Amino acid sequence: MTIAAHDPRPKKVQIADALRSEITTAPLPSGHRLASLRELADRFTVTQVTIKNALQILIEEGLIKSVPTRGYFVQSPSTGAGPETEPVKREEINAIHSEIRKLAARVAELEMQADHKGGA
Fold first, then answer.
1. Contacts of 18 (CB under 8 A, 6+ apart)
2. ∠ at Cα 62 (25, 66), nearest 5°?
3. 3-class secondary-structure state, position 92
4. φ, ψ (nearest 5 deg) of residue 52
5. What pTM does this model have?
6. In DSSP terms, which residues pair with 66 in a beta bridge?
């Protein structure tokens, strides 16, 4: 999978969104080990630094955790940061991410139209 060049979102956000979708729609079980940094970098055709940045987003959301020298693992909602990580919050976050993706696509569409018409 490659990153969409026309997508205005940073690569790390696009990757985090793709991984979040895989984790939550499958859903992957708690404790499931994600692919290595190298494997993910190859898959998304980006650097390992970009992958680390994308994974950091998911760590901050409480979706995954890093275990030094072992890798990155899916974290169960019950082992999150506390009561704030209830499923309702996750649904809200997913809904907001979905809206952001729609808005980013619309902005890209409008920019392309402006470019074709010789706009600013």
1. 1, 44
2. 100
3. helix
4. -60, -40
5. 0.64
6. 72
pLDDT (tens digit per residue) in 23-44 = 988 788 889 999 999 999 999 9
- Of 15, 4, 34, the closest CA to residue 97 belongs to 15
Q: What is the CA radius of gyration of the chain?
A: 16
Strand-pair category, 71-74 with 64-67: antiparallel
Place of tokens 């859903």: 27
CATH architecture under which domain 11-116 falls: Orthogonal Bundle (1.10)
The burial class, CB within 10 Å (0-12 / 13-18 / 19+), for 34 is buried
Q: Is the pLDDT of residue 70 over 90?
A: yes
Q: What is the pLDDT of residues 74-117, one digit of tens each?
A: 997 654 444 444 455 677 777 788 888 889 889 888 988 888 88
Helices (H) and strands (E) in the chain, counts: 4, 2
Question: What value does the mean pLDDT take over residues 61-73?
Answer: 94
